[in-house]
Amino acid sequence: MDAAARPTVTIGRLFLALAFVVTAALGTVATTASSATAATCRTLGHAYNIFNGNVYFSGYEGDQRFGVAHITMARGARYELGGNGIKPGTSIVFEAVGPATYFQTVGTAGGNCVVNQRPFFQNGLPGEYRLFATYDVPGRTITDEPVVDVTVT
After folding, report:
1. Res. 39 pLDDT band, cuts 50 70 90
2. Domain tally, the chain
3. For the residues 8-37, what does the mean pLDDT come to?
C-alpha cells in the first residue's frame, strides 16, 4: 500500500478516540460503585408475620436462631406480612403449607431494604400450616425460610 492510499490519523482523531475510551471506562466505574452501594442493607434479611400485635420470625437469613414460633388464628383473622434487610427492587414470596398450599407475594423493597407489611385475612382451610418465605438479600437468595407455624381454627 502506498503512502497516498493509507488512511491518515490526525492528532484530532487520536484525541477523540482516547477521550471516548476514557469516558467509557469512567462511566463503567461509576455504575459499578453505585450498584455496590445500593446493595447494602442495615439489617440482616428476615421475613415476618404480625398477629395480635406480636411479630413472629425464626431468625435472620435462614439461620432460625429464634426457633419457629406457633400461633393459633381463627378463619377471618387479620394478620400482616413484611420483611427487612431485603434486596432493593425485590419481593418476598410467602408460602403456607398444610392441608392446602397458599402463596402470597408481598411488596417490593425500596432503597431502604424494607418490604412494608401488608394486611391479609386468614381464609385457609382449618388445620396446621407452616409459613415459609423466599427472598433476596444482597449477594444471595434465602429459600423456604420457616417464619411461623400456624393452627387455623
Report:
1. low
2. 2
3. 34
Statement to judge: residues 73 and 116 lie in one domain: yes
Give residue 29's pLDDT: 30
Domain that holds residue 13: 1-38
CA distance 10 to 17: 11
The per-residue pLDDT for 27 is 38
Tell me the β-bridge partners of 82: 48
